[in-house]
Amino acid sequence: MKVLLIEDDTALQATLQRTLERRGMRVTVCSDGLRALDRWQASLPDVVLLDLSLPGQDGLMVLSQARAQGLKTPVLIVTARGTIGDRIVGLNTGADDYLPKPFDLDELEARMRALARRAAGAIGSSPASPSSTAPMAFMGLSCDAESGAAYHHGQPLEMPPRELALLRALLQRPGHAVAKERLFSAVFPGERDVQPEAIEVVAYRLRKRLAGTQVQLVTLRGLGYLLRANA
């Protein structure tokens, strides 16, 4: 796997490059935001590790420009900016995943390989629809779209149909905000007598049910809900 590491902290850059290369990856490094896009286009990486606080040009600007130019490489943001607001901005700009510093190197590798597999599976295929039979998974939590069953590390999860419908809808875009209106349609299809606030009750129950997993259901005021990895 080819990796482009865009990071200006020289100590962290050296540590990550050494560690990832020991694990069989080819790592290209860049420490300047103004040169990052050229390095990205030249190296054609499988995964980009992107810091946000870069000299010359902010990492979000690099990401925005890359997406505008049609670069679809999966991007994992690794940064000290760990607030929910920062994560939302990064994900909405085009990042595929977000890992706040400090992080565990094993988790970093697992997330990178998951992004690379997802991208490889998408080549030559159309975007998956909600009716796709491909399993949806995130941090050990998965849902079989064909059977509708939910699992945690392969063990079946028992939950009511509405909580399961909410989980399925969120697992289609883990780490991304999903609007309440869209989730309501998935959980209460065709039920015109149900108040929109009912989705909050289902979300509350699902949040409690996920308490024993590595996944957290987060409420984003004015935006909706998202699934994220527990810190």
UniProtKB/TrEMBL annotation:
It comes from the Bacteria. Residues 133-229 bind DNA. The modification 4-aspartylphosphate is found at residue 51. InterPro entries: CheY-like_superfamily, OmpR/PhoB-type_DNA-bd, Sig_transdc_resp-reg_C-effctor, Sig_transdc_resp-reg_receiver, WalR-like, WH-like_DNA-bd_sf. Residues 133-229 form the OmpR/PhoB-type domain. Transmembrane segments: none annotated. Residues 2-116 form the Response regulatory domain. Keywords: DNA-binding, Phosphoprotein, Transcription, Transcription regulation. PANTHER family: REGULATOR OF RPOS, TRANSCRIPTIONAL REGULATORY PROTEIN TCTD. This is Response regulator transcription factor.
